[in-house]
């Protein structure tokens, strides 16, 4: 009998999908935090610098992106074969 490799690489197509979604959310959050350029470099506009987008929405998106990336790393694909099958060595030892 041939043994199946129980220690296969953990990243599957779903993991990569979540990883790239998390990276995209992070990039969007950082771009929102950067904001746009000032219209006049000699004047200071506090409302533009301390806007809701830069202070609240962008950090929330960045944290959400890191959570999605962490989820993509920790996600273990459930295999129906490994849950229902028992190895023959365990069956002989229990008898």
Summarize the structure in words.
This protein is mostly helical. It has a domain at 11-37 and 50-77. Helices cover 64% and strands 0% of the residues. The protein is built from five helices and no strands. It has helices at 13-34, 46-49, 52-74, 80-84, 88-94. Helix 1 (13-34) packs antiparallel against helix 3. The chain is rod-shaped and about 75 Å long. The two termini are 21 Å apart. The model has no long low-confidence stretch (mean pLDDT 81).
Task: Sum up the structure in keywords.
mainly alpha; 95 residues; rod-shaped; single chain
Q: Could you outline the blueprint of secondary structure elements for this entry?
A:
Blueprint (H helix, E strand, L loop, with lengths): L12 H22 L11 H4 L2 H23 L5 H5 L3 H7 L1
Helix pairs in contact: 1-3
Mean pLDDT: 81
Oligomer: single chain
Low-pLDDT segments: none
**What structural class do helix, strand and pairing data support?**
mainly alpha
**Fraction in beta strands:** under 5%
Shape: rod-shaped
Q: In total, how many beta strands?
A: 0
């Amino acid at each position: 009998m041939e043994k199946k490799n129980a220690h296969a690489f953990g990243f599957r197509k779903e993991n990569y999908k979540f990883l790239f979604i998390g990276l995209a959310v992070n990039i969007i959050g950082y771009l929102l935090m950067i904001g746009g350029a000032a219209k006049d470099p000699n004047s200071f506009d506090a409302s533009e610098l301390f806007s809701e987008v830069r202070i609240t929405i962008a950090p929330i998106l960045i944290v959400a992106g890191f959570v999605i990336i962490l989820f993509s790393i920790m996600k273990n694909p459930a295999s129906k074969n490994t849950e229902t099958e028992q190895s023959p060595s365990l069956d002989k030892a229990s008898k």
